[in-house]
Amino acid sequence: MSENVRLRPEIAALTAYSQGRSPSADGFKLSSNENPYPALPGVLEAAAARVEINRYPDGAAVALRTELADRYGVEFGEVIVGAGSSSLLQQLFLAAAAPGDEIVYAWRSFEAYPSFVTITGATSVRVPLTDTLEHDLDALAAAVTERTRVVVVCSPNNPTGPAVPGTAFESFMAAVPSDVLVVLDEAYREFVTDPGAVDGQDYLGRYPNLVITRTFSKAYGLAGLRVGYAIGPERLLAAARATAIPFAVTELGFAAALASLERQDALDERVAEIVARRDRLRGALIEQGWNVPSAQGNFVWLPTGEHTTAATDAFFDADIAVRPFVDDGIRISIGEEESIERILAVTSALRR
Ligand code: PMP
Asked: How far apart, in whole angstroms, are the C-alpha atoms of residue 218 and residue 88?
């Protein structure tokens, strides 16, 4: 009778992160913003050849951090890696916020933020997106109080798609007190084509309170290996590192990430294909009459409102798994080329 065991009530009330329903083997899984392509050519082979699985991985992640630091032109201590950027977001929240503190973020945004905040014991402050489903950076800055320890900016925003403009981001950084940690979550940065969009890389070393997070899960197609990274001031990252579960990133993950970084040409080609497919799908949806916001990640947002559950079922009947956000909309990941026609048949029927 485990009822007697005292749990933290707010944790007992949480549900574990879930991916939802799966399509059949012939269907399309467009529900988790994954890459439809396998790892870049040669990456898995290169990784497997180097790994000794009887040993613990390098807890300090020296090789991958050195390579990333070199790439971004920062010091070794200004980069850390984690088990996906999910882990790093949680670590950063834990490093900065405790019960009684506040973490501010836009809503709707990445579903994991509220859980990560609850785990720290801090309080979520959600700032609504604009009518065009973009971050309202003025409202985010205005929501900062003396209790705020972290503000999260997600660009491009999951699940709605728009990226934050660079100029607006600079005004936002000027408005947020420098003792508040700003986390710029750029999980989808490689897919951004809007030249005016913020690029965290441009701001490295410029703000004492800015950390950017990126991942090998999306553009690099390594979601199954769990490797993400954060770049920012060494003191902040050292604190975040201290909250990590030891050895959470595996040697296979390090090796695959390093090998992937050597395949920049192949990466660019794939990203270009996914981006072209995304823009084509968005254009066709708009032609069907859907009000699809700017799509800068590897997904598009379909505003299905109160019909979201029925629309999700319609996709599922066509053997397509999408991500529903009840009474709001559906996020469709950009997957295989052959999925596009099938998506458009479903969305066309939904308009009737
Ligand atoms: N940030 C955002 C905005 C995401 O959508 C995701 C994945 N869905 C992540 C971070 C985390 O991805 P990962 O842990 O695989 O790096």
From this structure: 16
**Can you read off the two tokens belonging to residue 237?**
């990252």
Q: How far is the CA of 312 from the centre of ligand 1 (A)?
A: 22
pLDDT band at 339 (very low <50, low <70, confident <90, very high): very high
- Residue 123: the pLDDT is 98
Identify which of 130, 199, 210 has the alpha carbon closest to the alpha carbon of residue 173: 210
> What's the CA-to-centroid distance between 155 and ligand 1, angstroms?
11
User: Is 248's C-beta closer than 6 angstroms to any atom of ligand 1?
Assistant: no
- Give the pairing of strands 228-231 and 210-215: antiparallel
pLDDT in tens, 89-138: 999 999 999 999 999 999 999 999 999 999 999 999 999 999 999 999 99
Mean pLDDT of the chain: 96
Q: Which domains are seen in the chain, by residue range?
A: 19-39+265-351 (3.90.1150.10), 43-261 (3.40.640.10)
Q: Which of 93, 110, 115, 299 has the most ligand 1 atoms within 8 A of CB, as the residue to mutate? A: 110
**Prior bond of 156 cis (ω within 30°):** yes
What is the rounded distance in angstroms from the CA atom of residue 319 to the CA atom of residue 301?
19
Ligand 1 midpoint to CA 85 (Å): 6
Task: Please tell me the residue having the least CA distance from ligand 1 atom 13.
Answer: 84
**Atom 1 in ligand 1: which residue has the minimum CA distance?**
187
Q: Give the number of the atom of ligand 1 that is nearest the alpha carbon of residue 154.
A: 3
**pLDDT given at position 278:** 98
Q: 40-54, 115-129, 207-221, 315-329: which range is least confident on average?
A: 40-54
Is any ligand 1 atom within 6 A of the Cβ of residue 217?
yes
Residue 245 near residue 80 (C-beta atoms within 8 A): no
pTM score of the predicted model: 0.97
**What count of other Cβ atoms lies within 10 Å of the Cβ of residue 24?**
9
Q: Report the separation in Å between the CA atom of 187 and the middle of ligand 1, taken as the mean of its atom positions.
A: 6
> Which atom of ligand 1 sits closest to the CA of residue 215?
16
Angle at 100 between CA 126 and CA 8, to 5 degrees: 90
